Each structure stands twice: as structure tokens, then as C-alpha cells.
Amino acid sequence: MAEAYIVGAVRTPVGKKKGGLSAVHPVDLAAHTLRELVERTGVDPAAVDDVIMGCVMQIGPQSVDIARNAWLSAGLPESVAGVTIDRQCGSSQQAIHFAAQGVLSGTQDLVVAAGVESMSVVPLGSSVTIAMQQGMPAPYGKGWTDRYGTQEISQFRGAELMCEKWGFTREELERYAYDSHQRAAKAIANGHFRTQIAPIAGVEADEGPRPDTTLDKMAGLSTLREDGVITAATASQISDGAGALLIASETAVREHGLTPRARIVTLTLTGDDPVFMLTAPIPATRKALAKAGLSIGDIDVTEINEAFAPVPLAWLRELGADPATTNPNGGAIALGHPLGGTGAILMTKLLHELERVGGRYGLQTMCEGGGQANVTIIERL
Known about the structure:
Largest sheet: 10 strands, mixed
Strand content: 15-25%
Number of helices: 13
Structural class: alpha/beta
Shape: globular
CATH architecture of the domain at 266-380: 3-Layer(aba) Sandwich
GO molecular function, one term: acetyl-CoA C-acetyltransferase activity
Radius of gyration: 20 Å
Protein name: Acetyl-CoA C-acetyltransferase
Active site: 89 (acyl-thioester intermediate), 337 (proton acceptor), 367 (proton acceptor)
Distance between the termini: 17 Å
CATH superfamily of the domain at 266-380: Thiolase/Chalcone synthase
CATH class of the domain at 266-380: Alpha Beta
Family: Belongs to the thiolase-like superfamily. Thiolase family.
Order of helices and strands: EEHEHEHEHHHHHEHEHEHHHEE
Domain Thiolase N-terminal: 5-250
């Protein structure tokens, strides 16, 4: 049976909005991780079969196939092609899936899976805003409106609906967010991210964590929606960042002298209620565990994207997972969520944390626009 291995994983620091990475062109931000990946793995870049890159807002500086542009900007061989994909927040996790599937199918041997988003340069919602300014309709066809009526479809409403369904109070959300910042600050202080980060533009560490935040400060913030419970403190941060991984076949490992660091165990996709939008990681995880023949207790480290605090809280409650091994070094509430870059960044964090603690199995999942979720399970080697 064919195997797909992760042989390299690197990321930039995650920059906060208008922070230290905001002046870096998105192409160059992504190119930095590609160069670092090639250098750290020692692979011949001309042997790479494809570069698959996730990016959500594919307009302006992030348009015209940023995967290809970043590879060329990195000064790497023009013989290697690149493609850019959008599965919303899961775009670069899907890039990992496509890369692994290319290897598992036997049609490719070396594939780069990457992701990038500069939300300082290309703000959230830019592509929709521009289209509607030009008189185009919202991105929901007649079938959507017939099926779901005139109700609002947004991540913010989805987060509030989750709080209603699971009964999460504002205080519970803020306690979770506070813990995310404390975990992230501790991880940075202890150097847990140092080897996985490729500094750029003078930025050496993630800019988002606020170790001095308090529950009292959070309690003083206004909610994002009238009569809601979600605030900016319990939502992911707007961020800039990129990540890249090298996925290799057994043949490539042997022929290029590479060292496998993890094996891809299973790749799954699941859709769920698009109005709730953010709940799909729950059924997606159940599906992935069943496919892998594992239980949640077998998972040593989990990275679930903290798009909003109710997402990991509901996942923890429904799956019965261990909170201590779930986002152990903080999540997007503290570290940021650069949309198309997050999947590759989370997998880089997951791999390095498994190696640090000597764990065997790691699981990554995140909620995605349209009510979708990817789940990737890896086994450390």
C-alpha cells in the first residue's frame, strides 16, 4: 500500500493586523516559506511535481495564481507548476489533502502543500465587497435562497447559534480565550515555536498573544452583535502569515535521501449545516476516527482552529477529548488566523508538538465557509 509522508514543515511568524508583516507582499510572504522548506529538507526543487497553495481572498496582490508566483518569486525552478485553491479557512489543509492524494495515487512523488494570507493587504471579504459594488449578487444562487429562505448566512451568526445550541455563556467563552492567550504566551516563552518559524521582516515570533490580558478586560468589550455573547476577544484575530510542507512518496524518500517525520493516516471531508456553518468539525472528526480505526483517546495532540471560542468548546464536549492536549500551545484566538495560511500553519505546529512531546497520533480540523470541515490524522515517525 502506498504511503504519503511529511518530510518538512515550516511557517512564518503570524503577524497581527497592520503589524510587522503587513508591509510584506503576500507573494513574498509565501515565497519565504517555500525557500525555507527547500533549504531545510535539502530536496532538489526541480524534482517537485507541483505546488498547491491555499489562499482565500484571491484578488489584487493575491490573484493570478499566487502559488506559481510565490514559487518564482522564491527563485525556484520555473519548470515546477503551481495551483491556488480555495476551501475557505481550510484552504491550505485541503492543499495538504490534495498533495497527499497525488502521492497516494502514485501519480506524483514530491508535492509542496502551502498556504498564505495577508489580511492587512487584502482585507477579509474583499472579493465579495468588490463584486457587490459592481452590482453583482451575493455569492448564493437561487437554489440557496429557495432552500434556506432569507435568513442571514454568516460566520458571526453561526458562532452565536452555536452558543445558543450548546448553552455557552459569555464567561465560558472568555475563560477559554484567556487560556488560549496564556498557553500561547507560555509556548513562546519556552521556545516551543522557535524551530518551526522562519523569521521574516525582522519578526521572529507570533505577534498576536496578549499575556497581560485579563478576564476583566475581556468583560469590558462590546459584543459583535446586539444581544450576542461573542466579542473580539473570543474570535480569531485578523492576521498575516504563511506555511509550507513537503509531502513525499516512499520512492522520493529513498531516491532523495529524505527523512519522513510523519505518515498521513487519513484524510476526510464532511459537510454540515451551512447556516450554523461552524459545526462540521464534530461529524468530520467522528468520520475520520472511524475511518482510521482510532478513538479520540488515541489522539495525542489536536489542533482545531479557534475561529470562535464555541467551535473548540462544542467539539471538546461532543467528542470527549482532553482539553489539555487540544490546542496545547494556544490557538487562533491568541495566535491569529491568516485564512488561507492557517491549515499549513496548524499542521506545522501539530507536527512539531508531536515531536516535542513524543506523541504518536495527531489530528487537525477546522470549520470552513459553507458548513464544511477537513480532518487530517497523522502518525509521527
